[in-house]
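Hello forum,

I keep getting stuck at the same step: I have a sequence, I want structure tokens, and every attempt I make locally crashes halfway through. Rather than fight my setup again tonight, could one of you with a working pipeline run this one for me? It's a single chain of 319 residues.
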Amino acid sequence: MIEGPYLDFEKPILELQKKISDMEEFSRVENIELDTEITALQAKLAKLQDSIFSNLTRWQRVLLARHPKRPYTLDYVGFITTDFVELHGDRGFADDKALVGGFAHLDGRPVVILGQQKGRDTKNKLYRNFGMANPEGYRKALRLMQMASKFGMAIVILIDTPGAYPGIGAEERGQAESIARNLREMTILEVPIVIVIIGEGASGGALGIGLGDRVYMMENSWYSVISPEGCAAILWRDAAKAPDAAEALKLTATDVQSLGLIDGIIPEPVGGAHRDPQTTANSLKACLLTALEELDRLSPEERINQRIQKYRRMGVFDE
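Reply #2:
Ran it on my machine without issues. Output:
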């Protein structure tokens, strides 16, 4: 059975799973042989799951990226690294709980790993500010990345945010400047930088830690200049038009890869990463190790030059 909460388009799957469960219980209680019927229903269930999840709309993928049981940054840190030591503070204002990072070992290799962190219940959502970092969060990230460069440690970044925090205080403390500074400084860091959008990748909130040698997306993540709701509010003055906005934004992993903005897509189990977090984490780890192995073959100068050229090639130009 799918453990709740479940999404609207998953209801046919849930109903069939319940039917299978009821039939198995009836067979056990009444001691009636129903293996053939149950096997047929299980085959039907597998076919139904493949049909639904291979034909998701862009908006449905956005909903999967936001699933409350989807693994977050610290979940993946626990799955794919060892000896994680979290570091705190920007050495200027505060420690931003929406952006976490520290030292860890990835398959025995020392790395600095960081990313946005969301909360699951109301208390933790508020504590993590819904994964929306303030300027001090981006300054903390830069401090850790510069430390990684100093000690020759690769940088792994996991992005999952609905955007940088848009509050007055954040703007007063230099939200735009902190993001712009990160983009400039990340361009010239001498160590490998591998980035994965694991859930939501919205606007400057994602870009503030989103410039690297390799950028990947999880299969059911999204990456865009604005959230579907924000786009709908601007274009139609109606956030309910978010599904239409998602289609127009072309924000899925397949869309973004076709535009040449990412380097690859990391597959998820049928139904999304939350269905089997360990398998998803294994795929993530394999992708990171492959990317780092490729980047290790380059000198720091070659990495920086390729990084710059990578972003210069983006976009369409008409002279």
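The chain has two domains: 8-55, 62-312. If your local run keeps crashing, start a new thread with the error log.
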